[in-house]
Amino acid sequence: xxxxxxxxxxxxxxxxxxxxxxxxxxxxxxxxxxxxxxxxxxxxxxxxxxxxxxxxxxxxxxxxxxxxxxxxxxxxxxxxxxxxxxxxxxxxxxxxxxxxxxxxxxxxxxxxxxxxxxxxxxxxxxxxxxxxxxxxxxxxxxxxxxxxxxxxxxxxxxxxxxxxxxxxxxxxxxxxxxxxxxxxxxxxxxxxxxxxxxxxxxxxxxxxxxxxxxxxxxxxxxxxxxxxxxxxxxxxxxxxxxxxxxxxxxxxxxxxxxxxxxxxxxxxxxxxxxxxxxxxxxxxxxxxxxxxxxxxxxxxxxxxxxxxxxxxxxxxxxxxxxxxxxxxxxxxxxxxxxxxxxxxxxxxxxxxxxxxxxxxxxxxxxxxxxxxxxxxxxxxxxxxxxxxxxxxxxxxxxxxxxxxxxxxxxxxxxxxxxxxxxxxxxxxxxxxxxxxxxxxxxxxxxxxxxxxxx
Length: 454
What we know:
The chain is an alpha/beta fold and 454 residues long. 44% of the residues lie in helices and 17% in strands. It has helices spanning 28-35, 94-106, 116-123, 129-139, 144-154, 157-181, 188-211, 213-221, 235-243, 286-298, 317-325, 363-374, 390-411, 416-434, 440-447, and strands spanning 6-9, 19-24, 36-37, 52-59, 64-74, 85-90, 110-111, 223-229, 261-267, 270-276, 304-310, 331-336, 352-354. The strands form 2 sheets. It has a 7-stranded mixed β-sheet with strand order 3-4-5-6-2-1-7. Strands 9-10-8-11-12-13 form a 6-stranded mixed β-sheet, with helices on both faces. A hairpin with a 4-residue loop joins β4 and β5 (64-74).
């Protein structure tokens, strides 16, 4: 599968000081030698591993200089992919990077698929699947805290915990095999008691990991938060204040926001995906009507809702309708424009948070409330390792389910051979997280979401 050599631009395509073309495979050094010229006659082949060489990339057919570069080779298995890797550091313009990549492909490499470098690192045993998924989490990290957890997973902290559970399951299966293979020793009662205790302890450990799974999803994906309300209550102004920039257009004209605007903000390390929605109201404008319908549909996709109203006005029928829709949802209620009713802020009842965006009051109260509502769930602020995505959570829940079935099977006085089937299923599900037992179709599905060059 890895006999061919792959190449891709490993940095962003655009104007930058440096761009990197990465080559991995058994022809990587040969291709680098073919294209690289050093002013002192040094070759990539003779250079030490992990050493930078200065020189030029040339077109070997046209005999033309393409760019001034620094080039390095990393000999297998001491590279990202555990294969021979060559990295060409050229100027970061689109034209030189494309030209060099074209020459690399013409010299015997092929263009890498999305995530193929990391896929090779996994297939060659340098990373397990949980660590490989952490690579994309690092790239997509939205806050320093999410980066911290992703780096911990790449370092293998989650994998180490899963390996401990794996060893316990192997130990359980070993005791079962002794009982099955040597029934004449009449140790079934002892074996059943040992297995029952071990499985129940294992279930408790899995429950502890799943208890902080919400933390992983939050830091990985963020909290989707919709700002909802009628036109001109201050939704766009609130988004701009939280972002500390004028992202959304603010006017006195109702219906200015015709579509949803999405941006991430960081509050105490938690990423909130803020969505400024079109004001919900009856309208004959076709474009605005589409925006209003999108705002209503968005409710089913949000974790948290910030509902705003203009406290200086009577609550409208439309606002009462919105509040009915929000009855069973996590909602923060904002009473904006308290500057208009100065002196009456104390009359604003719970759960409404008094706010004046003009006077910049109530913002910190809102942020604290947002954090508080996140930590109302099973969110750990001190977790050392985290299950970070839905695939991992589902496999761990499947592992737990198989172990619970094993306990039920034992309680039903069924033969130990049947209990071993449930334990084997648990082991297979657990190993699916790290990739010890997983089909190539699942592997391809995971890595196709990576960026090309990683």
